[in-house]
Design a protein that fits this description.
Layout: H1 4-14, H2 48-66, H3 69-72, E1 82-85, E2 88-90, H4 93-107, E3 108-123, E4 126-139, E5 142-157, E6 160-169, H5 172-182
Parallel strand pairs: 1-6
Antiparallel strand pairs: 1-2, 3-4, 4-5, 5-6
Length: 193
Amino acid sequence: MMCKRTMLMLALLTLPGLTVAAGADGHGHAHDEDLSKGAISSYRDLSPDEVKIQAVLDTYARAMEEKSVAIMEQAVIPGDFSTIESGYPNWTWEDFRDNHLKVEMEQFTDVDYEMGLILGEFQGSLGFAIFNYTASGKVAGNTVSISGLGTAILEETDAGWRMHHLHTSAPRNQLQQAEESRGEHSDHSDHGD
């Protein structure tokens, strides 16, 4: 019997409209013009399920802005959460919380974080979200900003819908600029923020 995660990944791969056609570079990369519609809410009302998904994304973003681990725990499944940010993994909530999230919360001020749902749905007790994000803040007086795309796997829990896994990426040039603006070379500086 397949586990829920495997079933969701197979479902994501077979959903209509999720096939990425080869771009001009022939490698199947989506380009900015392919995402011209942006967040769903910018061109139509969200469905009831999309409202729930966007609420989870908004909670995650609010946790970042308010620099709150307690709020973040309302967006993720603390006992079963992993994340990959621009190639850098945190395989457990504790690793993400202690070695990534808290470090960023201490370094950044004036944080503005937004996540806009592009595509998402629930399938039983699992779901997914594809979203765009923008994040900005100040580190040692320097403004740092980054934007990109992300995918979240969601799971229905007794406390409501939460993120089980989160994967975000940003263009390499933005990651390099963010690292230069931060002016430091910590363990996490090679994956961006």
